[in-house]
Each structure stands twice: as C-alpha cells, then as structure tokens.
Amino acid sequence: MPITKKYTRPEIMCPIRDWASLEACKDYADAVYFGLPQLSLRAHAGAITLKDLGKFVKKCHEHDIRAYLTVNAVVYDRDLGLTEKIIKKAKTEKVDAVIVWDPWAIEVARREKMTFFISTQANVSNWRAVEFYKKLGAKRVVLARELSLEQIKKIHSPPSSKASARRGKTKMELEVFVHGAMCVAISGRCVLSSYLYGTSANCGVCAQPCRKEWTMTDPEGKQITTEGQYFLSAKDLRMIEYIPELIKAGITSFKIEGRRRDPKYIAVTARCYREAVDSFFAGNFTRAKAEAWKKELATVYNRGFSTGFYFSKPGPEGINYEKADNSAQVKKVLVGHVYRYLPKIGVAEVKMDHRGLILGDQIIFEGHKTFVEAAVNSMQKDGQPVQSAKKGESVGIKTASPVRVNDKLFVLRDR
C-alpha cells in the first residue's frame, strides 16, 4: 500500500562529469551538481565551462532537472574576482543554486540574491551551526559526512516551541551523501595530497595518496607484515538498503558522489536510488528489492561498500586493504568508434577498431554529449544482416537514440 504518513519526498541529486552524464541520469534525477574547471573540488571533471554554462543549465531545465553549481574550493586573494564572476554568471544563467562555504562566496551570493547551499566542506555537525547559516540566508546545508543517522535526526526535528528549539532542532533543508567515494579526512578537507605532491585537494586537484599502496617499516627499516597495504583507501558509501530510514529522518536531498566517474556509473546509481525512493512511497520497498539494487550497484565503479558513519564509526571493515581501484563486477571494453550516423533510419555505422561484437551483446555509445546503452539486436554489413562482426570490420547498428560521429562504442563484459 502507498505510504499515507506525510514524509518529504527526497530529491535525488546526481553528479555531473560532462554532458554525457546528464544524458545518463536525465530520466531519474531531480537535480544535478557540477563544477567548472575553476574553484571546484573536482577540477578535472570540469567539462562544463563558464562559456557554455547557460546552455548546460538550459538543457537541465528542459529535462525538469535543477542545476546546482559548486564553488567550494579554497578561495585565495587571487580568486576573489573570479569567485564574483562565477556567481554573477550563475545568477544570469539561472543556475538554481550555488554550493559554497567560503565567507566571501557567501557574501557574493547574498549580494546577488543567488540561492546558495552550504558545502560539506564547512563540516556542519550541529543544529546551532545549521541555524547560523540559515540566518546568513542559506537555503540548505550539506551535512558533514561524519554524522550518524541519530545525530542527523536530532538536527532535523522541527521545533514546536521555544523550549524544543533549545533542545536542538531546525527546519533548514538538509542534504546528505548516500552513495559514492568516502574520504579519510574530515568532510574531505585533506592536506595529504598537498603535502606529498604539491597538489591541493581543497583546490580540486587531489592526487589521492590515500589510494596508493603503503608499507609499514620499523625504526630499523624492516618492513612489517600486514593484512594489506592500502591502509587509507576507504570503501565507498552505499545506503540503498536504508532508504526508508533516511526518508523517515526527514532528509531533503540524497546526494550521489562521483563527479569523476563515468556516465554508466551515474546511470545505474541514479536509477537504483530513484527506484528505491519510489518504492518506499508506493509502499512496496522490500529487502529483496534492496538486495537486487545492491547487486546492480556492484556492477559499476566502486571500491567495495560500507555504510560510512551512519550507524557507527568505521573501523577496519571500512577500509579496502587489498585494492584501491575499481572493484566493479562488470567492465566496459572499447570496441570501436562511430564514423557515420544516419538519423532517418537511426543507424550508427561503426568501425570495429579494437574487437568484435555478436548479437545480444550489451553495448554503450559514449561521447562528450552522448550516452546510449542498448543490446545489439541487429547488425548489417554491406547491407546484409550478420550475426557477428570481427575486429577491423565496419557494420551498421540500429540505435534507439541518436549518437554522434566519433562517439566511442563499448561492450560490457563480466570481470
């Protein structure tokens, strides 16, 4: 039965690496968050530039998706003018909100009457801090990742009187991460990359030393035997099976991490969390469904999974000691590229540069603005149907959605 008690339906917010990421999540996301190459904590994911900001936001709005721009890097004196320029441009191009934490960025947003959210970089961990930012004009706070579910509940519960307000309550919109990479530093504010490599995580260019292989040695230089050598590589967060508990906690927005991950990851995570939220409100959320979603989430990029800080402080079980890279059960394998697309008949002509295909293969066309996933139901070579195609051959493949010249073609394979 549908849920009758009044709960707020949480927003599903998806990460954006490039235009193709939007194509991947457009059917599932309520909102997306993205950064520019400047003043974003994912500088390498900055495929959206200041020049095409307006076009990207317009495309989001065409899909009825809210667009949030991150301006959450450390702001130095040299960045003051740039910060102002970006936020003014965001206002002009109808960005729905900027995600900030630096006081100067907040001041500019206030002055420009630009809706702003407080980034998790502010490490907001109590209701008094939430109220502080509310008084400054913030519409929402992205809570620190180190909070437990019980702590979040206490921050959220709305006051019914002045007495209850003194016990620690707020009506502020609250946003939390529900899936994706976790950082070993408090709310991502790490200095290890800057110290070791001279590239600052707080300026968007983390070299991820936490994902490197480490060794322990004694004072005499002898290596100490350990259970693994990735001592700092935290597992990914995954809260899909606890969606009902998160909704009942009154959280406004469920945020998926992964602005540097590929569109396939974004498509799967967006769909799974959308289905989970919809199932809760339809009254048919089950553990069996949650197990199925967990299996799907394991097919795309991950470093193993944990529940982060939601139920307890992570111990050894929160670290992937043996592997720091992708643990996905399915991999994308490059097949070739599109050299011609025939829009009238919806056929992509593809050169098999790297390997072949057979009927029934699950494939992905991916490019700067393209993400199309489908099964190979028919192929033609020289105008004749074929069951397979070999490396070096060219074939025509029917596509459900348009693709573009030079888009790459991948096939999905089990690891």
Unreliable parts: 163-167
**SS strand fraction:** 15-25%
Helix content bin: 25-40%
Rg = 23 Å
Q: What is the tally of helical segments?
A: 11
Distance between the termini: 39 Å
The quaternary state of the protein chains shown equals single chain
Shape: globular
Biggest sheet, spatial arrangement of strands: 1-2-3-4-5-6-7-9
Class by alpha and beta content: alpha/beta
What does the average pLDDT come to?
A: 90
- Summarize the biggest pleated sheet: 8 strands, parallel, barrel
Number of strands: 20
SSE blueprint and pairings:
Elements: E1 11-15, H1 19-25, E2 31-35, H2 53-62, E3 66-70, H3 80-92, E4 97-100, H4 103-111, E5 116-118, H5 127-136, E6 140-142, H6 149-156, H7 162-166, E7 173-180, H8 192-197, E8 236-238, H9 243-248, E9 253-256, H10 263-282, H11 287-297, E10 305-306, E11 330-342, E12 347-351, E13 357-358, E14 362-366, E15 371-375, E16 379-381, E17 384-386, E18 388-389, E19 394-398, E20 408-414
Parallel strand pairs: 1-2, 1-9, 2-3, 3-4, 4-5, 5-6, 6-7, 7-9, 8-10
Antiparallel strand pairs: 7-8, 11-12, 11-20, 12-19, 13-18, 14-15, 14-20, 16-17, 16-19
Helix pairs in contact: 1-10, 3-4, 10-11
Summarize the structure.
With 415 residues, the chain is an alpha/beta fold. It is built from eleven helices and 20 strands. The strands form three sheets. Strands 1-2-3-4-5-6-7-9 form an eight-stranded parallel beta barrel, surrounded by six helices. It has an eight-stranded antiparallel beta sheet with strand order 15-14-20-11-12-19-16-17. It has a two-stranded antiparallel ribbon with strand order 13-18.
